[in-house]
Amino acid sequence: MAGNEWINGYLEAILDTGSGATAIEEQKPVSLNLRETGHNFNPTKYFVEEVVTGVDETDLHRTWLKVVATRNTRERSSRLENMCWRIWHLTRKKKQLEWEEGQRLAHRRWEREQGRRDVTEDIEDLSEGEKGDALGELVQPETPRKRFQRNLSNLEVWSDDKKEKKLYIVLISLHGLIRGENMELGRDSDTGGQVKYVVELSRALARMPGVYRVDLFTRQVASPEVDWSYGEPTEMLSTMCSEHDDGNGNEMGESSGAYIIRIPFGPRDKYLRKELLWPFIQEFVDGALAHILNMSKVLGEQIGGDRPVWPYVIHGHYADAGDSAALLSGALNVPMVLTGHSLGRNKLEQLLKQGRQSKEDINSTYKIMRRIEAEELSLDAAELVITSTKQEIEEQWGLYDGFDVKLEKVLRARARRGVNCHGRYMPRMVVIPPGMDFSSVVEVQEDAPEVDGDLAAITGGTDGSSPKAIPAIWADVMRFLANPHKPIILALSRPDPKKNITTLLRAFGECRSLRELANLVLIMGNRDDIEEMTGGNASVLTTVLKMIDKYDLYGQVAYPKHHKQNDVPDIYRLAAKTKGVFINPALVEPFGLTLIEAAAHGLPMVATKNGGPVDIHRALNNGLLVDPHNKEAIADALLTLVSDRNLWHECRKNGWKNIHLYSWPEHCRTYLTRVAACRIRHPQWQTDTPLDEIPQEESSLNDSLKDVQDMSLRLSVDGEKSLLNGSLDYTAPASADPVQDQVKHVLSKIKKPESDSTDNKEVGKKTLDNVASKYPMLRRRRRLIVIALDCYDSKGAPEKKMAQIVQDMFKAIRSDSQIAKVSGFAISTAMGVSETTEFLKSAKIQVNEFDALICSSGGEVYYPGAYTEDGKLIPDPDYAYHIDYRWGVDGLKKTIWKLMNTPDGGPESSKSSGVIEADDKSSNANCISFLIKDASKVRRVDDLRQKLRMRGLRCHLMYCRNSTRIQIVPLLASRSQALRYLFVRWRLNVTNMFVVLGESGDTDYEELISGAHKTLIMKGVVEKGSGELLRTADLRDDIVPKESPLIGFVNANAKVAEIANALKQLSKASVGM
């Protein structure tokens, strides 16, 4: 412990202060889950064995300084005693948390094994050979050769002959400040490497053959605290390369290339850190959906033959964007890809191990539970998960309920053989290392004089000639160094404790040979005043400065305060020209992009053996791996590379030889190859509706985007408001000429011959009465009132007051004839269609008063008066097709019954004594319904969802109808997603929907509050909902905004005029106010 003088001094003080130690020994508390020694507690021995290696000394250093500065012996002894107790309790708490975490992990492992056994038992159609294979895959690892063959099997590598594809790709990265040029990397914790990654990925994808357009969605911020450029709705990143034309020498279109699309959501005039964005995610989804629908139409006119061009894939980056991508891909029925970048469960595990914060404190600071839930939801919907390293798959994603490495292999093997998996699914994980932009890399040949010469020969001035001009950052670095010609050991990272800079400095300071041979350059972000920096960063920088003084490293260590992003290549070049080494000593490095950048500039590396550098070293073989905790090993590795010129040149050559593996073209080629192997899907309307083309004056998606064919999407900030809110003027009639609309409607019937109607019927689908002459009125609505009140009695039957509220809503809307012309009604309920129609009939309300019925918790959609057969309503077949993705109805029925009716999912008990029973009346093809017999024994939604995910089952489940039923619908179905479907299918903008709710409701209630639609909450209407069965932790504040101009309130006994006025006020609100 030679490097920890304060700890040595502390130990000596304990030994010297006999009275203090004796007092501690006499008053020692009983050990709680600590290692039992069988002897009396000795504070010195305990400190040496348990604390020195387990407690971060930074926490206690300031207290120690105060202690040693105290001259009064009695006060000094008292402070030492108090400090010892502080360490004791800190370590005791840490041990307790570790024990609790160990118990939790043990229980989780048991649940995981139970889930695997259930899957094996439930797959009943296996032959003996297949069953043997499946069980074998659970326990037998793959050999590298088999894995290599599997990865390449049935994959067609993306090549230049894909030019005719003309793909539209959507990327999403919400937090931080994103722009194409002069990126403010390091400005805050949200504007870091991910920002650079997504911008460069967008540009690189747009250059690939077969890719027509790439949109990078992020948040629009028009705040005085950030640059004005972040408030621009659109920014062009690149245009299509000239070599990527249509094959006939013609440019492919004005909208081609890569763009940043900024969507307003949340308070527009505030820049929010990522932890505060969660309540506004659904606002973003609705805004992004509006843009995609307009873009699909524009691209259809340019390259799609007047048919919509849908996104080929929607790719979410980080948890917040993953959550958004899951909702968008579900609304559009297109594939989703996920890149986690940094994972919540892994961060939570690391923070708990530190023992400084409880789980509640961690969640309060980082919103970690909401983040983890978003990551689990992303795994539910993702076709493909892109990781940087194998370690990320096994050690980080392996912590999630929604991914099991062993089960994924079994299900994938069955899918390859064409064997039924009964709806079970695990997302495909692939390793695709991040690419790098090599445009800033100066190609230097090994035998060039500039490389073999020393720095003096490069900069000039040694022979009496005037010095050559050098980059400003070189001068800034060299002013620290007494002899700048020595090889540079370069470290480039944030001053984060996890980056382990202090251990590197200690290794350098304690190795005399290394100090004599090399200089150390620390590029630790940008700083003005250390005292104004955050605790962790300030602590590291303070420690660095003290260690430089302690080891007397002045003239041997450079630590410039500022550098620009475009200075980084010059910093690498300086180190390479001095024949230096790049080092990344992080405790754990998820990937290590700086190692690739350094290799591209000809620098050998020394890197941590924990995480991504292992894969990089395997590919490049251009340096050495070390234990980041071992300062001697770090010093030895650096000394070896700096002193052995032959080894240095060999590592440099190896790095250059294989660096192409990390280029952006290579990354994008692998990316597109993997995406092409996914199940490509997009909206395909099955219903015979030849008149989907709505007249131009009625297709008011977003009037501000009608000029979207312009290459730069010239949108004003004010225009973006209309993008989200439509162009609805409630004082104007429905159209300029209602008579003309009626004429068009009559002519539409004439245009469609009877023979066409017969020829276009889908095979196996029933004929829909009047489809050729009558379509849902939603096509002509500009406003939709959605009544989603969950008013049920103790038996789950709708209460009578709900009928009166429906009548009042009708009266409120129809009190203004102009508004009534453009408005329609929908009802959204957990009841099945038969129960809904029975309720309306009992209330003497005509079903045809509604344009749409969203029934069975979003499992079915009906259009009264349009889609009927023999006078009966039939569900929208397009919607049924839309939500069919990953719907394992048989597996879900059996598993839910077992989980609910048996303790811990064990052997089945008698059905008569179960907690639930089948509810056939409310069940249908897209909704499984169970009656709850004993609500006190049911599992919460989050618990059930966890167990289903562990078994590879994906769905949307909720408790409903006053906790009398549990319903399971497909993953892509829900009452909120059904509204987005109406937007996609019938072009009725979500922002022109008004959702009427109570103060509580079914467990999907939270999803209906948030979004770009307007929400009217009627206080006192719903006396009891099902929310208490949703989750253990209360995350509502992280899902629903506390205050929003899009949410209004009225009382249960509100009069018609009050309801009408509340709706009028809401109609004036807009997203991002």
Description of the molecule:
- The structure is a single chain.
- This protein is an alpha/beta fold and 1073 residues long.
- It contains 39 helices and 27 strands.
- It has an eight-stranded mixed β-sheet, with helices on both faces. A seven-stranded mixed β-sheet has the order 18-17-16-15-25-26-27, with helices on both faces.
- Helix 5 runs antiparallel to helix 11 (344-354), helix 19 (501-510) crosses helix 25 and helix 31 packs across helix 39.
- The two termini are 58 Å apart.
Sequence stretches where pLDDT stays below 50 over 5 or more residues = 14-39, 48-55, 125-150, 246-250, 444-453, 690-739, 743-773
What would you call the structural class? alpha/beta
How would you state the average pLDDT, rounded?
80
**Topology, number of strands:** 27
Major beta sheet, specifics?
Answer: 8 strands, mixed
| Number of discrete helical segments | 39
Q: Tell me the overall shape.
A: globular
User: What is the helix content?
Assistant: 40-55%
Task: Output the radius of gyration.
Answer: 32 Å
The neighbouring-strand order within the major sheet is 3-4-2-1-5-6-7-8
Strand content: 5-15%
Whole-Å distance between the termini? 58 Å
